[in-house]
Input
Amino acid sequence: MENVLKIEGLCKDYGKFHVLKNIDLEIPNGSIFGLVGRNGAGKTTLMRIITGLAEPTSGSYSIGGVSCRDKRIVSYRRRMGSIIESPAIYKNLSAYDNIKLQYINLGMTSYESIPELLELVDLHGTGKKKAGKFSLGMRQRLGIAVALCGKPDILILDEPINGLDPQGIIQMREILLNINREKHTTILISSHILEELSKLATHYAFIEKGRILQTLSAQELTDKIRKSSRLKVSSAELLCPVFDRESIEYKVEDDETVDIFSDISVTRLVELANSANVQVISITENNESLEGYFMNLVAKQEGIS
Ligand code: ATP
Output
């Protein structure tokens, strides 16, 4: 996967307040990249910088390989669609007319594709109803349609799920998955609730107090929070052939630490270790939830800073 967006050593200060601290991020082409952080972590500031609404204090970013210091960035930024804070829509216009206006702004003269765009965000059939009378979910979906008008390669969405009811969240998730799969649009999406992103994100970055705590793929996150038992043993090397023979799923962390993913009793584990002359020093269960995982990362950062 190539990177559609690359951020290097990016910092943002407001006076003496360091809002973003040395951010390095690579957003792979075709990914749904979840930026997860608590309120005030710096998500909106980062998105405002990438979309050209604010300048970095230092560091840089590039879109499709073009640096933010390159003059061509202006045209490359047209490859981005975004909703930062609230969707850019006109309340006194219908969904169709909002999109048409954006087409005109972008210099597009054919409006044939508007019904398809309305259908994509589930707003076909809203007719002449003005956007001001739409629910929050409908307004967010219209904002996404407007952001998609120029057929962007990357869609940047700041907390689009915030405030939606459970049905609205499901609908939004399905629409975003559809846009990603059908239109191959890369999506950078922020939220303060990891659980909400977990059903659609392919990659994550965790941000806290302006610092990236961790980046990882959805598969890596799933592995980390999978129900497992961590064994401390005298030798992982001697024990693993026994696990292979018994078809027990495991992952070696180091020569004295093995994570077991199969459902197996402690008695059986000790029996197997004994059969290989391996001593079991301790067994701990890992039953972490997604939010628990995120909060632990934050707690570790607080311990450091
Ligand atoms: P939220 O979900 O609450 O919007 P966030 O992760 O998007 O949080 P930001 O809006 O980026 O966080 O804000 C990060 C920090 O920077 C906050 O402490 C905020 O008060 C501060 N901040 C943002 N914009 C400015 C500004 N223009 N001037 C001064 N401080 C600012």
Remarks:
- Residues 166-182 form the longest helix (17 residues).
- The chain has a mean pLDDT of 91.
- The pocket of adenosine-5'-triphosphate is lined by residues 14, 17, 19, 37, 39-45, 192 (CB under 6 Å).
- The CA atoms of residues 30 and 184 lie 6 Å apart.
